[in-house]
Amino acid sequence: MASAATTMVKFGLPLIAPPNARLFILGSLPGDASLAVRCYYAHPTNQFWRLLEQALGENLGAVSYEERLATLARRRIGLWDVIASANRRGSLDQSIRGAEPNPLDRLLDEFPHVRAIAFNGAAAASAGRRLISVRPGLTLIDLPSSSAANTRPFAQKVAAWAALTKYAAPEHLPEAASAPQ
Predict the structure, then answer these.
(1) Angle subtended at Cα 82 by Cα 146 and Cα 73, rounded to the nearest 5 degrees
(2) Which of 47, 94, 150, 156 has the CB geometry, 3.0–4.6 Å to 145, for a possible disulfide?
(3) Cα(154)–Cα(160) distance, integer angstroms
(4) Based on the number of CB atoms within 10 Å of its own CB, is 7 exposed (0-12), middle (13-18) or buried (19 or more)?
């Protein structure tokens, strides 16, 4: 008989996004370290912030969580998860049982500027693609997981995550860049 300590219902973190979000990055369900501190991708071995730093060309590694979120808002990026709650022992995706999804189609209704949804890992992609209605102008991107449990070389992950760059332009371009010459 499994005890409550071995398997328990875990609830994800709230959606974080600016009103003009153009890109959402969706994980499966936050791991225990992230849930404990209520911050996305908080485990020190998770490569999420390093990968995003490479894709955006922004310093995300040496700044506070609040500064990271401010950068995401400026770059019109939202964070959420495919799974709202599930039974899971530990933090591995393969341990997820009885998953209840987040209402992902809501993203497309409440955030009309969304042009891409990127899935952080195979579990997020598999579940998320079943929950999102394909719409014109929407690109779905499957990314290798940022988890250290995914042993793909970091350089390969960086190359795949580079697909996010074109969807993550800053909210306001400098006047010189936007004015006709």
Answers:
(1) 70
(2) 150
(3) 10
(4) middle
pLDDT in tens, 140-180: 999 999 998 878 899 999 999 999 999 997 754 433 333 33
In the DSSP assignment, the letter for residue 150 is S
- Which residue pairs, CB below 8 angstroms and at least 24 apart, start in 160-163? 161/51, 161/52, 161/54, 161/55, 162/54, 162/55, 163/55, 163/118
Which two structure tokens, joined as six digits, stand for 9? 């219902």
Are 118 and 143 a contacting pair, CB within 8 Å? yes
Largest CA distance in the chain: 72
3-state class (DSSP) for residue 51: helix
pLDDT tens per residue, range 27-72: 988 888 999 999 999 999 999 999 999 999 999 988 999 999 999 9
Active site residues: 46
The two beta strands, 8-11 and 83-88, are: antiparallel
Can you tell me the distance from the alpha carbon of 181 to that of 177, in angstroms, rounded to the nearest whole number?
9
